[in-house]
Structure formats: structure tokens, C-alpha cells
Amino acid sequence: MVCFGGSFSKKPQVVQKPLTLKSITKAIFTRYVINHTLIFTWPGLTVNLATAKLKKEMLISSLKLKG
């Protein structure tokens, strides 16, 4: 999140809205989307696919052991 430091620090000064449930929800949602967009950049995507594959293999092997 370091690279976003400049753009994020300016926004609160421009928009001075009272904190409502809607604005809080929007802020959380925006952050969630940004975090997931960062995850789905190429290096993050390869890591995610690798861990997902690993989890799937572990799940399959654990099911085989039970069966």
C-alpha cells in the first residue's frame, strides 16, 4: 500500500463528509476492492493460484485418508 500513499493522503482533505454508516461501508468496500486488486496483480495471482492448488491437493488427500 506504500505506492498509494500520495493519492490517499489528499482525498480526506477534499471530501469532508460526516461519518455515516453509508460512508464507512463505502470506505471499507473501497479498501477491500483495492486490496483484492493488488492481490490479483501478476505476482500476487501466481501466489494465489499456487496456494489454492496446494489447498485443493491437501483437501483431496485428506478426503482420501478418511475414505
Question: What is the 3D form?
Answer: elongated
Outline the low-pLDDT stretches. Answer: 1-10
Mean pLDDT: 70
Number of helical stretches of at least 4 residues: 3
How many domain regions? 1
Tally of strands: 0
Task: Describe what you observe in this structure.
The protein has helices at 5-14, 21-39, 42-66. The protein is an all-alpha fold and 67 residues long. It contains three helices and no strands. Residues 1-10 have low confidence and may be disordered. It has one domain (21-67).
Give a quick precis of the structure.
The protein contains 3 helices and no strands.
Task: Itemize the secondary structure elements and their pairings.
Layout (H helix, E strand, L loop, with lengths): L4 H10 L6 H19 L2 H25 L1
Task: Pick out its properties.
disordered N terminus; 0% strand; mainly alpha; elongated
